[in-house]
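Let us walk through a complete example step by step. Step one is to write down the protein sequence. Step two is to encode the small molecule, S-adenosylmethionine, as a SMILES string so that its atoms and bonds are unambiguous. Step three, shown after the inputs, is the structure prediction itself.
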Amino acid sequence: MFIAGSIRRLISLFNQQRNKKKTLYIPPKPNLHNLLVLRSLEDTASFVEKYLGNAVYRPSRETFIRSVLSQFSFENLVICEFGVYKARSTNYLAKLLPHCTIHGFDSFFGLPKKWSGNDQDQGYFNLNGKPPIVEKNVKL
Ligand SMILES: C[S@@+](CC[C@H](N)C(=O)[O-])C[C@H]1O[C@@H](n2cnc3c(N)ncnc32)[C@H](O)[C@@H]1O
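Step three: the predicted structure of the complex.
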């Protein structure tokens, strides 16, 4: 009896912790970097509200791609992606459009020069020239 009760209590405690984890909000650490990120987010949100009232926001690249594709008919269309890297979006597109050929362009040696506005230096995304595995309807 004691053991069964203890196991039940343990399971209940485990479930409580698991549920807490799902909803637990951990605020960012109060440091300069996080404060600047929060301020720039607020600034961006204000800009979007003021000047981009009709812009459509998509929370992920997949929903963005699907939303763009829904606006076109795909007869005689040439689809090119500039910047393939590990082909995440290239292969996603290829699977969504199995009857189209997706042409992907990349050096696979990473960025030719540092991208401004972030930490990604020259050579970032370097795959040593080795292209990723792609779907049958992708040409690199
Ligand atoms: C952000 S990654 C692409 C991400 C990719 N679309 C995905 O879904 O994961 C940018 C890619 O563009 C390539 N790239 C950027 N500038 C380039 C250039 N001038 N010539 C060739 N490749 C370039 C980089 O090598 C890198 O693989």
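Step four is interpretation. Residues 83-86, 88-89, 106-107, 110-112, 125 surround S-adenosylmethionine (CB under 6 Å).
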